[in-house]
Amino acid sequence: MSGSVFSMPPEERSARGLDGTYLKTETLAAPVARPACALPGQSQADRQQRRCQAIVDLGLEGQTSIPAWDEAAQLAAQFLAMPLAIVTLADSATESLRAAYGLSGLGVGNPLSQQRQIRLDQGLGVYILDSEQPLLLTDATDDTILAQSELVATYGIRAYGGVPLMTTQGVCIGTLAVMDTQPRRFTEQDLGFLAMAARWGMSEYERQVAMDRTIAGRSHLSTPSPLGQGAHIGLLSQLTQDLRGPMTTILGMATMLSREIYGPLTQKQREYTDIVCRSSQGLMTLVDEILDLGWPQAEMPALTATTIDIATLGQRVMTLLTPLADKSAQTLIFTVEPGEQHWSLDQRTVKQILYHLSFSIMQVAGAHSTLCIHACRRGPALTLIAWLANPWLEESLPIDVLDYFSSPARSDYRPEMGCSDPRPARSQTQLGLRLVQHLAQRHGGYIKLQGTADSGCRLAVLLPVIDTIKARPQATSELETRP
Q1: Residue 28 to residue 219: CA distance in whole angstroms
Q2: pLDDT digits (tens, 9 = 90+) for 139-186
Q3: Distance of alpha carbon 370 from alpha carbon 154, whole angstroms
Q4: pTM of the prediction?
Q5: Which class does domain 1-300 fall in?
């Protein structure tokens, strides 16, 4: 095949989930002769289930026109001087066009314009969906298999450039693609712009969804929740969500500068752009965590049973926290009991528990410590066990964590009153552990200390599978830890 297909191996992709990034910014692999293989470790059924659930969670099922995606498609086509651009959503059988630019160029009344969908096995987006990697074709007719697709055989598409459309949670739900009926060689600059346009379009839509839900939730607020949320939290969530647009732009432009698309950089300029990239990505992570906490408790989404891969989710959270750990020379290790990777749990809740459990311990852990979290089975429940390993101390937990669980006063603690402890790290740890307690109980589980001071103490968070959880009120004003 003489046409080019740019792709990246899995180890060159970032672990996008909450930081808004799905395209590794440092390098692109050399062109290969075929579309990339499907992601390892995930069955097609699992990918389809995650994709469909993400589409439902974002309210995309009934959406026919999404302004941000229309704008992203138009910008991509105009910037790259391509006559056609589309944004698609995919289910198990079809790709639906949710935004398009220049479809009339395929002929007046062409079926693609009228039906606004194409069979998944007849398009080119299936290769992006399966691999979650970009696909750039100089001339699709040079490959006998690709030439049989409907886009190529029926509509005469020859040049094709597409990137994954990823949610904040790291789920690929569709594609952004530009096309031409004439051959076209794509550059790394073209690929970088496509990735940024897709990231911006997705971010803008998620921002609008969060804003609409915040406004709707604010209208139902009555008394403050146990976490001290009220109307001011709704406004804070809206303002925080507004940060995503500018931060996405800054991160995208800094990424393109760091790759020297617009020319070589001096050593000092490279240092500055690397700082901007790292800082922007860190801010995006913090924005996502603030938004996750921004739901008025009365309006928090109900628990949703999803088959999650705890190994993948755990590593994704560790990746998010690694820049913070590096500041104190800390190491993060996440392990899973063999054969216990897949669980029917609420993914949003489990992700928050992992993040805040880890972050709370890191705040009061010493430098050069190693935080270990192990996922295992305890009866019908997933158990997350956390402990700290220090090169000069026995395996245990920081004294501030032990004090929190051994203090009788903690059961009388009211989050809306704040922490009286003058040390910011200890105060933040107390708030984080309190939140983990709340989330675990909301999931029907609990958190407790295991072991003794002599043998080493560990924290265990037990989370029953959702099928075993009985109906119960979501809001509680008094949170007790089970023995």
Answers
A1: 47
A2: 999 988 999 999 999 999 999 999 999 988 888 999 999 999 999 999
A3: 57
A4: 0.48
A5: alpha beta
Dump strand ranges (E) for 218-364. 306-309, 331-336, 342-345
Q: Which helix (H) or strand (E) holds 373?
A: strand 370-378
306-468 CATH fold: Heat Shock Protein 90 (3.30.565)
> What is the C-alpha to C-alpha distance for residues 224 and 416, in angstroms, rounded to an integer?
9
Q: What is the DSSP string of 395-459?
A: SB--HHHHHHHH-GGGGG--GGG----S-HHHHHHHHHHHHHHHHHHHTT-EEEEES-TTT--EE
| Structural contact between residues 6 and 234, judged by C-beta atoms closer than 8 angstroms | no
Please give the structure tokens belonging to residue 238: 């809206």
For 61-72, how does the pLDDT look when each residue is reduced to its tens digit (9 = 90+)?
A: 766 678 889 889
The single-letter DSSP state of residue 80 is T
CA-wise closest residue to 163 among 138, 199, 189, 139: 199
Q: Are strands 135-137 and 342-345 parallel, antiparallel or unpaired?
A: unpaired
Query: Which tokens belong to 258?
Result: 């760091």
Structure tokens at 412: 């009388």
Give CA–CA dist 373/459, Å, rounded.
9
Please state, in angstroms and rounded to a whole number, the distance separating the CA atoms of residues 2 and 4: 6
**Helix spans in 154-266 (H):** 188-218, 231-242, 244-258
Which among 384, 305, 301, 312 is positioned nearest to 344, based on CA atoms? 305
Q: What pLDDT is attached to residue 240?
A: 65
Q: Which helix (H) or strand (E) holds 117?
A: strand 117-119
Structure tokens, 454: 């002599």
Residue 448: HSE in the Cβ half-sphere, 13 Å Cα cutoff: 12
**What ranges do the domains of the chain cover?**
1-300, 306-468
**Rounded-to-integer distance, Cα 347 and Cα 352, Å:** 9
Q: How far apart are CA 280 and CA 264, in angstroms?
A: 22
Distance CA 103, CA 151 (A): 12
The burial class, CB within 10 Å (0-12 / 13-18 / 19+), for 198 is buried
Cα separation, 191 vs 307, whole angstroms? 33
Pairing of strands 331-336, 370-378: parallel
HSE (CB half, 13 Å, CA atoms) of 92? 9
Q: Are strands 172-180 and 159-166 parallel, antiparallel or unpaired?
A: antiparallel
CA pair distance 46, 344, nearest whole angstrom? 12
